[in-house]
Amino acid sequence: MPANKKHLNPNFLHRFSRISAGLIGGYFVTVSFFLALSYVLDKVAVLFTLVFGGFLLWVGLLIVAFIAKKGWKIWAIYLLLSLVFSSVVYFCQSLPI
Length: 97
Hints:
single chain
């Protein structure tokens, strides 16, 4: 019995949005998360953690993007997370130390 054709050839835009969300959006979330973490914790310790933990987080976000059914939802979630972490960086920079 042959496979169902609708499962074999997904839409190009759908596939591209999931791949780009995993690669680019996952990278934005990873970098913004560790940058926000460096304002809360010790910068040197966070930098050493970024070397290995950043790769693991990025790969995890990449896998989540491939598991998701809709690419635009993953893009929205990743952009929202990046915005939240970037706002933490912005407000931590504006605080007098």
